[in-house]
Amino acid sequence: MFRQFGLEAQAIPNIIDLAQFRYRVRSPLRPHLVCPRGFHPYYGIDVVVRAVAEVQQSYPDARLDLVGGGPLEGIIRDLVAQLKLANVNFMGVASRAEIGRFYDQADIFVNASNLDNMPVSILEAFASGTPVVATELESVKYIVAHERTGLLSKPGDATALAGNILRFLNRPDLAAQMAQEAFEESSRYHWTVVRKQWLQLYADMTSRRQKAQQRK
Questions:
Q1: pLDDT of 52-99, one tens digit each?
Q2: Of 153, 104, 141, 147, whose CA–CA distance to 125 is shortest?
Q3: Which of 33, 120, 191, 192 yields a CA-CA distance of 20 to 30 A from 160?
Q4: Quick check: is 181 in a domain?
């Protein structure tokens, strides 16, 4: 948007506290999915649920933990009942102090946002070693490299989302490889790294202001 108005923009990423999350290798890789997004229209929780319905056709014991709250929770509960899905668990809202255990308990992270900024949840999945399946929004592609640190599909496509989940389940070696790549990538979002970018930005802004004042 800034570019359309001839303005230069610099992206400085969100940060995560790596101490909150425990990296572990998923071996064996179980069909235990986690979606820690709120029940809002732009997070596509209905798409996640429909994708799990397809996954359960191949893995009947597949489990989905929905961690969050929001105005559409009742609608999502109705959808789960309508699809007659088992093993879909509404975990409620998790505090920052306890969110790490939901990643640790699960084996695959799922995100189906149709609108997003820079989701910290994906960074948390990176830090936890939870393989990432998500939608290919511009903001998400800034974080997730398709086929390297996660698998991406078009927003709103439950079948494609399910296909990527199944791809991981059928190729645990691929899931482990991408999770390792993602974990290494997570170091970019530690405060010690991001702080330098903020300090450099402030220094640049100060320098520009001083030069502008000198020209007056």
A1: 999 999 999 999 999 999 999 999 999 999 999 999 999 999 998 899
A2: 104
A3: 120
A4: yes
Question: Containing domain of residue 182, as a range?
Answer: 16-188
Closest CA to 124 of 11, 35, 40, 196: 35
Q: What is the DSSP letter of 107?
A: S
With beta carbons less than 8 A apart as the criterion, state whether 124 and 185 touch. Answer: no
In which order are the strands placed within the sheet that holds 32-35? 88-92, 63-67, 32-35, 108-110, 132-135, 151-153
How far apart are the C-alpha atoms of 62 and 77, rounded to whole Å? 17
Q: How many structural domains are present in the chain?
A: 1
Q: What is the pTM of this model?
A: 0.91
Distance, CA of 35 to CA of 133 (rounded, Å): 10
Contact 179, 21 (CB under 8 A): no
pLDDT at 42: 95
